């Protein structure tokens, strides 16, 4: 027991959430691979590859959560520059899929630069905004620097993955609110961004194709979709509605208890069943347990991070732990909203669940940051109780002295 406690330090609840997500990932990816497995010479190759990446990610969590969170400051600038270079190179030498280049292949491993960009922005915004605490002049400067860097990243990402660019901007905006940026500046920024977004939305809805703007037609088709009703006798599954249609069928077949992992009927028909739409397969396999249980884990992660943040003694670790939990939870709920047809189709994987390489490993790094902060930057509940008891005793003694004097 002592050996385990010496290896797995930090918040035990975060470790438990991480373990549950890894187990669900292994079971459900194996359940969802279907045709992908049978298309290979070795049907176990896809799940072995996925398990290997999870193992690498878990090893990184064990290794890095033992390092003090302050060492992440060293990574901020190199990671920012590396992310920018990778984002610039992606449209040129990247692997193209579904009319977009989102990955760069290095030694047979596909790396998604947008995931690196999100990690770099978590570290950059936490350190830059955290260090500016206590000075209005420093916070104003930090606001403009973070805003400019975010705009640059959003511009580089938007034509590769619009949803990631939007998610990144929303994340940084929330971080600014948490960090205490001037409310007037945030209000003006919100009004400007909302106005431009509404204008862009109406253009996308009204204009089917815009020459010179890549992926415009794809964005238009994802926004302008007819409401699907599989009960309609004239309903036909086409290339345009294939993902949403089979996701709805998978969800409906799950019913209350689910069909149990390995028995999914839609894994062979649903494109990206093991990635972007794995939540639909989870609902089919586990029923209501999957429908409510998985969102609960991500919500629990966010609320636990809030509790850790309240125990932080400094601003930077507080923003690091909140930023890491926030980016994971936001991405998770966007993915799940797409799977149940509450949101237009995007390319956001389900963090730590979807089959993937770089995205899964980077998600593990977020957990390592949260655990490092909980290990090095928080006041333990026992210390809080001791301090409160000492305060109560001090107050009691002072009260006795007053009464004696009287």
Radius of gyration using CA atoms only = 24 Å
Order of helices and strands: HHHHHEEEHHHHHHHHHHH
How far is the N terminus from the C terminus?
A: 56 Å
* Cα shape: globular
Tally of contiguous helical segments:
16
> In order across it, which strands form the biggest sheet?
1-2-3
Helix content: 55-70%
Provide the domain count.
1
Largest sheet: 3 strands, antiparallel
Arithmetic mean of pLDDT: 79
Count of individual beta strands: 3
β-sheet strand percentage? under 5%
Label the structural class.
mainly alpha
Q: Residue ranges: pLDDT <50 for 5 or more in a row?
A: 381-406
Give an overview of the whole structure.
The chain has one domain. The termini are far apart. Helix 6 runs parallel beside helix 8, helix 6 runs antiparallel to helix 14 and helix 14 packs antiparallel against helix 15. It has 406 residues and is mainly α. 69% of the residues lie in helices and 3% in strands. It contains 16 helices and 3 strands.
